[in-house]
Structures are given as C-alpha cells and as structure tokens.
Specification:
This protein is of the alpha/beta class and 676 residues long. It contains 22 helices and 21 strands. The strands form four sheets. The chain has a seven-stranded parallel β-sheet with strand order 11-12-10-13-14-9-15, with helices on both faces. A six-stranded parallel β-sheet has the order 16-21-20-17-19-18, with helices on both faces. It has a five-stranded mixed beta barrel with strand order 2-4-5-7-6. Strand 6 and strand 7 form a beta hairpin. Helix 5 crosses helix 6 and helix 7 packs antiparallel against helix 9. It is globular. Bound molecules: adenosine-5'-triphosphate. The site of adenosine-5'-triphosphate has 19 residues, from helix 9. Belongs to the helicase family. RecG subfamily. It is an enzyme of class 5 (isomerase).
Amino acid sequence: MIILADNVNVLPGVGPKRLEALHELDIFTIEDLISYFPFRYEDLGERLPSETLDGEKVTFKGIVSTPPVVSRFGKKNQTRFGLLIDHENVRVTFFNQPWIAQNIDVGQEAAIYGTYNAAKAALTGMKMINASADALDPIYPASKQVSGKTIRHLVELAWADVRGTVDSLVPENIRTKYRLLDRNQQIENMHFPPDMPAAKAARRSSAFEEFFVFQMRLQLLKLADQNFAGEAVNYDSEALRAFENQLPYTLTSVQHKVIDEILQDQKRPRHMNRLLQGDVGSGKTVVAAMAMYAAVTGGLQAVMMAPTEILAQQHAINLSQLFDNAGLSLRIELLTSGLKVTARRQLLADLVSGEIDIIVGTHALLQPDVAFHHLGLAVIDEQHRFGVNQRAKLRENGVNPDILAMTATPIPRTLSITAYGEMDVSVIDQLPSGRKTIQTTRLSHNQLDQAISFVKTQIDDGAQAYIVTPLIEESETLDVQNATAMYETMQLEFPQYSIGLLHGRLSNEEKKVLMADFKANRIQILVATTVIEVGVDVPNASIMLILDADRFGLAQLHQLRGRVGRGTRQSYTMLIADPKTDYGTARLDAMVETTDGFVLAQRDLELRGSGDILGTKQSGVPEFAVGDPIKDLTMMEIAQQEAITLVSQDDWDQHPDNQALVDYLSRTMARYRHFD
Ligand SMILES: Nc1ncnc2c1ncn2[C@@H]1O[C@H](COP(=O)(O)OP(=O)(O)OP(=O)(O)O)[C@@H](O)[C@H]1O
C-alpha cells in the first residue's frame, strides 16, 4: 500500500534514471506526483455519427456489435469490428494495434477516438478510451526524459492507492465560503475529470489552493520578520533636519512622505522590511541616504548593496558627495572584488571596529568574513535580484538589520501583491520638480544622419550623450564589435570631442574610470552596450540615442531612457529602428506616447499577454502551476486576505482543522523555489 509521503520510487517502473528525471520536475514524493497537474485537457469530442463531419476527429461511444477480426498483410495488420451507436452502426478499423482485439467483446461498451469517414460510415481508430469516463484527455507538462504518458500512468498507479487519503490544505470554512472542492475531489478531477465543467471547478480550487499556500508563506515570513525583535533606532531628528537643509535641492512632498514612513519603521523596536518603489530618476537615493544617516546618528552602521560593481561605485560616489556637501564627515567605503588583500583586510577591520559608518558594495558584502560593529540598516538596490534567502544571509552572524529594498522596476499594481506580498511598500510616484518631460522620437535607420547632427548641436551646447547599441545574446563578440564600430563612427563624426566605449568585456576598473570620466564631463559621448542600463546617474547627460531599439524590451527601453532627464536640461531620447514585427512597433509607439513607468509596465503586460512567463520572471514575480496571478488577481487578493485573517488568529496553527496545512508548509518551506 502506497502512502502520500512515500518516495515516488515505490512505484513500479521508477528506477534511478526515471527518479532523477522526476526530480527535475520537482516530483519527489507521491504527494508531489499527484499534485503534478495537467495544464490542459484535450476534448476528444464525444458525438453521434450524424453530428460528425467527414474527416473530423471524434470519439464515438457505443456497444461492440461484431467480434473483432484481425487480418494480417505482411508486417502490417488491421483489427476490425462494428460499433453500434444509438441506432447507427459504424465500422471501426485499427491499424497495427492487434492487442485491441483482446480487449474487445461483443456487447461491451467501448469508446474509441479516431477519424471519421462519413461516406463509408467508418472510423479509423487511434485509441481506446475508458468508456466510463468522459472523453477528456489530460495533457501533462512533460520533459525530454519523462513523457506526459508516463506521468499519466504513474499518477493512475499512485491514485489507486492514495485516493481518499488526502487532507485539504485550505481550511473548511474558506472552502465553504468560496465553494471550493475538498482536496480529494480537487485532485481527482484535475487528473480524471468526468467532464469539462468538473475540470474547470477543479482548476479553480487548485489555483486557489496554490495562491493560498503562497500567501500563507508570505504571511509567515512577515510574522517571522516581526518576531525577529528588531532594534529601535534612536536617531537624531535635529541632525536629520540639518542634513535635509543642506541638500542642494528641496525634497518633494512624496520624498518627505516616504522618508517619514521609513523613519517610523526604524524607530519601532520591530524589524523593518520595506520596499521603496519609484520610477527611474524619481530620487530614491537621497531617501536611502536619509535612512542610512538616521541609523548612523543612532550609533549604528549602514550597508548599501547594489547588483553590479559599477552601480556600487556610483552609489558610493553619490553618497559621499551628498554628505560632503552637507558638511558631514561620515566615513563611507566601497568594498569591491578588486581590492588588494591588505586593503581589504584593513577595510574589514575598520568595519568591525565601527570606524566605517556606511559601506557600499555588491553581493561581496554577504561573504562570511564581512562582519560589522553594529549594523542597523541594509539598503538593497534593485530588490528582485536579491532573493529572500540572500537577505536571510545578512541575518546570520547575529545581525538583523532593518531592510530597505529599492526598485525602479515598475510593477503594475496587478502584480505587486504577488511580487512584494511580504513587504511593506512605499511608493515615490512623483518626479522632482523642474524636470522637463523627456522628448522621445522614433527614427528609421536611414534617418541616423539626421539624429547625429541633432546630437552635434546639443553637444555643442554643452550637453552629453549616451549611444546605446543592442546586446546580441548569441554572441558577446558581435556585441562588442557592434559597439566598437559605432564608437569608431562617432570618433570620425566628432573629432573635437572625447568619446568613451563601455561594454561587458572591460574590467571593473576600466568601467569605473570611464564612468568617472563621463560624470566629470571629460567624456562627452559614451557609446555603450546595455551595461549602462540601471542606476547610472549623470544629470548633465541629456541625449539618449538607442540603436536597433526594437531589439529591446519595454522595461529595458524605459530603464535606458531613465538615464537622461535627470537634470534641468531638456532631454531627448531617439529610438532608431525599423521594426519588423507589430509587437516591435507597438513597443516603440508606447515609448513615444508616455514616460510613465507604471503605464508602460501595464502596456507591456497587455502586449505580451499574461501567459508570458519570461516577462514576469524578469520582474521577480513567482510562477504558478495552475493559477495566473494576473488574470486571477481577485482570487489572489482573496487568498491574501484569508491568509492574513488566518495567521492573525491566536493558536491558528494548533487547531486540528489546520494541521494538514501546517504540516504541508513546514514540509515544503525548505525547497520552496519562490524564495530563492
Ligand atoms: N527633490 C529633488 N529635487 C531635485 N532633484 C532631485 C531631487 N531628488 C533627487 N534629485 C536628483 O534626481 C536625480 C535622480 O535621483 P536618483 O539617482 O536618486 O534617482 P533614482 O530614483 O535612484 O533613479 P534610478 O532608479 O534611475 O537610479 C539625481 O541627480 C538627484 O540628485
């Protein structure tokens, strides 16, 4: 007798090789197997012959009216018998499936899927179907090593034993409220639906279950965060006010608002886990600087983590400038991989002794030898590149800083509930005043000369420009060649100016020097591949020329455009492209129409359709097997509400009704992919 917790290799036919292949599909136990659902059903279309067109594929169900006869010709053979459907007799022929004859007797009910020949009232059989079930064929997501048919077969074997023994994960009161099936019925109808409505009902229940379990995990994570007794940061409000007064600009009301939200969190003796979401160029850095300064005035250290070394370096420069200009002497250091051994050792010593106030770096900051004197705040830039597990690393060796994650990836409201479910969110939805709307134009390749002469007039006027060439995924060499060719063209076009070339093959050191030169206006034109994409801040750069712009996704184009329009100059983005697809054209049109990242993100979603996993993957939204977090948003919202309600009840995890859920969550938490 097989039970749910058994390893799948208890099933006949699952040897080491197949086991490995099943592991690839995340199937380890019998429970995993029976929760591995078909993603659609082929309707085999049971009908009467009179309703069927010639040549149509169809399923006929009837009574076998003549004994099966197998005739052979050479290596081939055919099996024939009659099938009485209602009052019509149809002649059935199977080719090369002689075993069919052994399973057929006169008088027996049979369902056969095949192609109908109306003139001859004959059916060329393709397969026999379980006559007592409906003609729905479940289609399983398969891999190269395991076919859908094998999965189907294993599910049948397993279900025969565990049927009726599955406990529901969604508590009964919630199931009743939303008319959801219990888990036995749900699983049975996912695999063996008697008809389409039953399959639909089972999918609905499965999707809800999946969302609910996901939301439970988020809520538990949130609770765990809160229970991690965070530290109350006793910051110096006077000092913060003085810092603000020394800034080179006035903070916008939205910046004020989000700074207040963050400070409130820091002040509480609770752990902060907040996401700061703001469009490109909206001024997140100064908000983060305030939060870090708050920690420092409270006698704590702060760390800022960026996804790349270029960005880390930029942040270190920007922060130093901000604090220097305000006359504050904080010690800010940059930890990079290029640091010499002795320098690194000194840096780490100063960090642990508390001499360093703020340290900026990449993932390198998560290495075990990096220890703090007293870390109070971790700012994480571009949050979706850091998984929850990585954040957890920060907590090891006893440090449990407040977390402020920042992202410029505009996630449409419809997705943020899924992407950031466990965090509190602050949004900057207003750009600093004085910004002029970036003017975006679309040009074809034969207008490139025109674009370049426009760049010329702007540079003569003191502006700086980016020229971006597309990343060629198949070949980094081509990619670099492309950028290099453009660089050479620009040198010819602009002999009087200094031109830089930035691409992925350069060392971090070379990149750093280039960026510093560009920032200081020692370089006027920077030809770059997409390495320039996120976070680079050079306010005097006001021209962005993107070549083959149709090769970029909308989010990427928006990020690139966000590199300009950061100062007071009128900025321009020129998209050079001859798009070959409607989708390419639509993306460029969207860019011309709006500069609002949230509008673009929504448009992107519509253009791609919610089924596109790739896009959602990029944005950090987890994938689901059955439910669609965009189409089924309301269901996700309900699942979230119910999860919040459940975990807010005292001793909810002690209640017998919730044991199956509690067990399931603890069993599966460890290998939960969404949080990697
Ligand atoms: N209130 C303000 N008034 C005027 N300028 C501001 C204000 N706040 C920030 N800035 C300036 O706006 C520019 C963009 O700010 P910042 O680099 O913080 O943007 P960001 O939100 O980090 O954007 P990205 O995600 O694109 O890096 C910077 O040059 C910064 O000095």
